[in-house]
Design brief:
CATH architecture of the largest domain in chain B: 3-Layer(aba) Sandwich
CATH architecture of chain A: Orthogonal Bundle
Strand content of chain B: 15-25%
Oligomer: heterodimer
Order of helices and strands of chain B: HEHEHEHEEHEHEHEHEHEHHHEEEE
Strand content of chain A: under 5%
Number of strands of chain B: 14
Shape of chain A: globular
Number of domains of chain B: 2
Number of domains of chain A: 1
Strand order of the largest sheet of chain B: 7-6-8-9-10-13-14
Distance between the termini of chain B: 85 Å
Structural class of chain A: mainly alpha
Structural class of chain B: alpha/beta
Number of helices of chain A: 12
Order of helices and strands of chain A: HHHHEEHHHHHHHH
Helix content of chain B: 40-55%
Chain lengths: 301, 384
C-alpha cells in the first residue's frame, strides 16, 4: 500500500509541480530581465486555456489551430503587458509597477468573464481518458503530457539562456541594462522578448493542464500566487530555483493530502516557505540580489 | 416678532403640504425590490440567470400594469460571491435604497452573512440560497426557495437505503456550501441507518484530487457522496474515473448543471445527483403539476436569451412569483402584512417544487420536491 502511495505522490507532485513551475519560471524570467514581478502571470495560463476551450472544445476547431491561436493571443497580451509596465517603470517605483500588474490581472479577469462567461470550461484530454496503471496507482495520459511539455519548455528555456545570443543578451540586460546598451544590446526588444517567452510558458501550461484542472476566468490569480511563492522560495530571478520551488511546494502539498488531510494542505507548505525565507533570504538556490528583495529595491524609483 | 411668526407659519404650511403631497404620491410609487446577486466571479452564471429571469418577469408584470397598479423596480447589486461584499450591498439596499423586499442572495455563505442585517430591518426576504441555515434558526420574515441541504440529504439517504448502499464515503468542499451539506450528512446518518466510513474535506482550489480519491478507494465504502459546487464535481468525476473507482458516485444538487455535463463528458455516465425536478422536465409524467410550469419557463427563457436556463434562474422565478402574489394578496407593502401573506402560501406549484410555507416553516419545500437523477446518454435522467 505504501508503495502505491509513493507512486501516486510522485506522479501528482510532478503533475502539479509542472503546473506551478511554468508560472514560477515565467515570473522569475521577467524578474530576471526587468526587475518587475509580474502578477499577471496566471492570466497567460487562463487566456490560453479559455481560448482552446472555446475553439477546440466548443467550436470544434482542430487542436493544432486552436493551440496556435491561443499562443498568438497570449504573446500579444504579453507584449501589451510589457508596454504598460515599462512605460510606467521609468517613472514610478517598482512596487508601483507590481501593483499595476495586479491591476492588469484583475482587469483581464473581468474582461475574460465578459468575453466568455464565468463558468468553468474544459476540453478533452489529448490522448483520451483511459488511465495508465502502474501497480495499483493510476495516472492519466494528460498528466504525462503536462510533465513532458513542462520539461521541454523549461529545458528549452535554460538552453536558450545559456547557449543562444538572444538568451545571453537577456542575461546581460538583467545584470546591467546600461552596460548592455553600451555593447549594442537592444534592451527594450530583449525585455519584450522575455515577456513573450514568459507568456509562451504560461500559455503552454494552460493548454496542457486545462483538460485536468478545468479553467475559468478567475483561475489565473490563484496560479499567480502559487507561482510567485514558488519563485520566491527557489530564489527570485533564478530559473532552476523556480523549478525547484515549484516541485517542492507540490511535494509538500501532495504529501500532506495523502498522509494527513486535504483540509490542512496549505499549513506545512507555508510553514516551510516562512522558515526557508527566514534562514535563506535569497531562496533555496539564491536569486539575483545578494540579500533577497529589500524595501529599497521595491520603493526606489 | 411678527416676521418670525409668519416664517414659522410658512414653514409649517409648506411642510404639511409636502407631507400631503408625498402621501398622495404613494399610490403610484414603484415597488422597489432589491436583488443582491452574484454577477461576477466564478458564480456569475447563477446570478446572471437569476437577473435575466427577474428582468423578464418584471417586464411582463409592468406591461400588465404592475402589482396593485404600481410598477415594479428591481435594484440589482453584485455581491461578487463574497460574504463581505454581500453584507455591504444588502446594507445599501436597506438603508439607501429603502427596498420593500429582498430577493437573494444566492450563495450559502452570503446568506449566512447577511441574515442578521435583514432580520433587524424586518424586510421580507426570499433567500435564493440552498443552505438550511438561512431559515434555521427561523426569523420573522425570511423565507427560503431552493431545496436545502437537509431535504436533499434526506432524499439521498432514502435512495441509498433502497439500493442497499449503507456504508458511504463523504467528501465535501471547505466552504459554506460544503459545510452545510457535510453537517446534514453527518446529522442524519444515524437515523437513516447510514454508516459514514470515510469523511474528508478538500479545498475548492484543489486541482488534483487523485490522492484523496485513492484514500477513498482503500476504504470499504459502498458509495461516495460528494458535496461541492461549481467546478469541483467536474474534477471529482473525472478523477474518479481516472483512478478507476467503480462504486456509485452521488453528487449534491449543485452538480445539476449543463456545465458539469459538458466538463465530464463520458466520465459522467452513471453518476447520480439529487435535486429539484427542474433539470429533467421531459422525464416527468404529464400529470405532474410542475411539468407545464417548467416547460413554459424554459420556452420563454430560451426564446429571449437563446440558451437553456439553470436552476438559479428557476429559483429567482419562483421567488418573484411568490412575492408578487403575496404583495397582491396583502394589498399593502407593510412588512408584517407581506410576511403573513407569504406564510399563507400553500401548495404553490413552482419550478423548484411545490411550496407551502407556514408560521413555523419558512423552508417551503419537502422531500417530495427532490428527485434522484442519474446521467444516461449524456443527460440527466430521473431515476425516481
Amino acid at each position: 500500500m505504501i508503495l502505491v502511495d509513493l507512486i501516486q505522490i510522485v506522479m501528482t507532485t510532478l503533475t502539479v509541480g509542472s503546473m506551478y513551475a511554468l508560472v514560477a519560471v515565467g515570473v522569475s524570467l521577467i524578474y530576471n530581465a526587468t526587475g518587475v514581478i509580474n502578477f499577471a502571470q496566471g492570466e497567460f495560463v487562463m487566456l490560453s486555456g479559455m481560448t482552446v476551450a472555446s475553439l477546440y472544445g466548443n467550436m470544434g476547431w482542430p487542436l493544432p489551430a486552436a493551440i496556435a491561436v491561443a499562443l498568438a493571443i497570449v504573446v500579444i497580451y504579453a507584449a501589451f503587458l510589457m508596454l504598460i509596465t515599462t512605460a510606467f517603470a521609468a517613472r514610478i517605483s517598482l512596487i508601483g509597477v507590481l501593483i499595476i500588474t495586479i491591476g492588469a490581472s484583475i482587469a483581464t479577469q473581468g474582461t475574460a468573464a465578459r468575453i466568455w462567461d464565468s463558468d468553468t470550461h474544459r476540453f478533452p484530454p489529448f490522448s483520451g481518458d483511459a488511465p495508465i496503471r502502474i501497480l495499483d496507482a493510476t495516472i492519466t495520459p494528460q498528466a504525462l503530457w503536462i510533465i513532458v511539455v513542462s520539461t521541454v519548455c523549461v529545458a528549452g528555456l535554460i538552453w536558450f539562456m545559456r547557449s543562444t545570443i538572444a538568451g545571453k543578451a537577456m542575461r546581460a540586460c538583467a545584470l546591467d541594462p546600461a552596460a548592455a546598451t553600451m555593447v549594442g544590446i537592444p534592451v527594450r526588444s530583449t525585455i519584450l522578448l522575455s515577456f513573450m517567452l514568459s507568456g509562451l510558458l504560461g500559455a503552454a501550461g494552460g493548454i496542457v493542464t486545462t483538460p485536468l484542472t478545468t479553467i475559468d476566468a478567475n483561475g489565473g490569480m490563484l496560479l499567480a500566487i502559487k507561482g510567485f511563492t514558488a519563485a520566491m522560495l527557489g530564489g527570485m530571478g533564478s530559473i532552476p530555483g523556480a523549478l525547484l520551488g515549484a516541485l517542492l511546494i507540490a511535494l509538500v502539498e501532495t504529501t500532506t493530502v495523502t498522509f494527513a488531510s486535504g483540509a490542512y494542505k496549505e499549513l506545512p507548505t507555508f510553514t516551510i516557505i516562512i522558515l526557508v525565507l527566514l534562514f535563506l533570504p535569497r531562496g533555496l538556490v539564491g536569486g539575483r540580489h545578494e540579500t533577497g528583495l529589500h524595501h529599497d529595491d521595491l520603493t526606489r524609483t | 416678532m411678527k416676521s418670525k411668526r409668519i416664517l414659522g407659519a410658512l414653514v409649517a404650511t409648506s411642510t404639511a403640504a409636502m407631507i400631503a403631497a408625498s402621501a398622495a404620491a404613494q399610490d403610484g410609487d414603484p415597488i422597489k425590490l432589491g436583488a443582491p446577486l452574484i454577477l461576477s466571479g466564478p458564480g456569475a452564471f447563477a446570478g446572471e440567470a437569476s437577473k435575466r429571469t427577474l428582468d423578464m418577469l418584471v417586464e411582463d408584470v409592468n406591461a400588465g400594469g404592475g402589482i396593485d397598479g404600481r410598477p415594479v423596480e428591481m435594484i440589482y447589486y453584485d455581491t461578487e460571491g463574497k460574504p463581505d461584499v454581500a453584507v455591504r450591498v444588502v446594507n445599501r439596499l436597506l438603508k439607501s435604497d429603502a427596498v420593500h423586499a429582498v430577493l437573494g442572495p444566492i450563495a450559502s455563505w452570503e446568506a449566512v452573512a447577511v441574515k442578521q442585517a435583514l432580520d433587524r430591518a424586518g424586510v421580507p426576504t426570499l433567500m435564493l440560497s440552498a443552505t438550511r441555515a438561512s431559515v434555521d434558526p427561523q426569523t420573522d420574515c425570511m423565507f427560503k426557495l431552493p431545496a436545502d441541504d437537509a431535504i436533499v440529504v434526506a432524499r439521498i439517504y432514502e435512495y441509498l437505503n433502497a439500493q442497499g448502499w449503507t456504508k458511504i464515503a463523504v467528501i465535501s468542499s471547505q466552504d459554506g456550501f460544503g459545510d452545510g451539506g457535510h453537517r446534514e450528512l453527518v446529522r442524519q446518518a444515524e437515523a437513516a441507518g447510514i454508516e459514514i466510513a470515510f469523511d474528508e474535506q478538500f479545498s475548492m482550489e484543489e486541482t488534483d484530487l487523485a490522492p484523496l480519491l485513492n484514500k477513498v478507494k482503500r476504504s470499504d465504502a459502498q458509495a461516495v457522496v460528494n458535496w461541492s459546487s461549481s467546478r469541483a464535481p467536474v474534477i471529482v468525476t473525472n478523477t474518479y474515473r481516472q483512478v478507476g473507482m467503480e462504486i456509485p458516485l452521488v453528487h449534491s444538487h449543485a452538480a445539476l448543471s449543463p456545465a458539469v455535463l459538458n466538463g465530464t463528458g463520458e466520465n459522467g455516465e452513471g453518476m447520480y445527483a439529487a435535486g429539484a425536478k427542474f433539470e429533467a422536465v421531459d422525464n416527468l409524467s404529464d400529470d405532474d403539476p410542475q411539468k407545464p410550469v417548467i416547460l413554459e419557463y424554459r420556452k420563454a427563457y430560451e426564446a429571449v436569451f437563446g440558451e437553456a436556463p439553470n436552476q438559479f434562474g428557476a429559483g429567482a422565478y419562483d421567488a418573484f412569483k411568490i412575492l408578487s402574489a403575496a404583495i397582491d394578496a396583502a394589498d399593502s407593502l407593510d412588512p408584517a402584512a407581506v410576511c403573513s401573506a407569504i406564510e399563507a402560501t400553500d401548495g404553490y406549484v413552482g419550478l423548484g417544487g411545490i411550496y407551502s410555507y407556514a408560521e413555523d416553516d419558512h423552508a417551503g419545500l419537502g422531500t417530495d420536491s427532490v428527485v434522484v437523477y442519474t446521467v444516461s446518454g449524456g443527460s440527466w435522467q430521473i431515476v425516481e
